[in-house]
């Protein structure tokens, strides 16, 4: 059985005081949740403050990106040891916004995945096709390229720490969710790919989140699909009550 994992990707929202208030409210609302793993991914500058507020709760802490070198003259970057030092256990890698606006490629995703794993951080590796790619029938080719490239050279042991997030780019922030059937189709395809690359045990154990306009009113239906093991939530994770409702789907 795969424990569902629901993560909030706060993107570039909240100053420190807002981040603390949000997680303080959330902590109380989900204090009795034990059957779902909950993670929040605030902006870098709030990680430490949020970690303090989270003391004594089961909510995990994640970052939204990581650089692949441990340290050095890389102005503006944040490394895996730094994330670990503020209490992160997860890190989102290869989000479509990073691919679109910041030149992320499958190759750099792969480097970041190795950097995260080397510090014991669990990568949440994002994949997803654009609307143009879907409409021209390339969805499965794109997902395959992103999975094969992003997870290249990982061992079965390393893969045990990886979470995948399928986020169709056309569903992110648009209010246009993939239908449960559309999402399930791609999730099953990803699991089949994992089976081909890492074998059946890994494929069956790997959690694959869906992301893209997940809201309280569509979470249950999405999460009841056999290959959907949680959600990566953007907008709806910025309000404690809507994120709570998704967590309690
Ligand atoms: P929305 O939930 O705002 O569509 O964002 C999804 C996302 O990109 C999570 O990483």
TrEMBL record:
HAMAP family: TIM_B
EC numbers on record: 5.3.1.1
Entries under PROSITE patterns matching the protein: TIM_1 (PS00171), TIM_2 (PS51440)
SUPFAM superfamilies attached to this UniProt entry: Triosephosphate isomerase (TIM)
Gene: tpiA
Active-site residues, Swiss-Prot/TrEMBL: 95, 167
Location (main, coarse): cytoplasm
GO cellular component, one term: cytosol
Catalysis performed (reactions): D-glyceraldehyde 3-phosphate = dihydroxyacetone phosphate
The entry's keywords: Cytoplasm, Gluconeogenesis, Glycolysis, Isomerase
Record carries keyword Heme: no
Quaternary structure and partners: Homodimer.
Subcellular location: Cytoplasm
Protein name: Triosephosphate isomerase
Pfam families, alphabetized: TIM
A Gene Ontology BP annotation from the UniProt entry: glycolytic process
Role according to the record: Involved in the gluconeogenesis. Catalyzes stereospecifically the conversion of dihydroxyacetone phosphate (DHAP) to D-glyceraldehyde-3-phosphate (G3P).
Listed pathway(s): Carbohydrate degradation; glycolysis; D-glyceraldehyde 3-phosphate from glycerone phosphate: step 1/1; Carbohydrate biosynthesis; gluconeogenesis
Gene3D superfamilies given in the database record: Aldolase class I
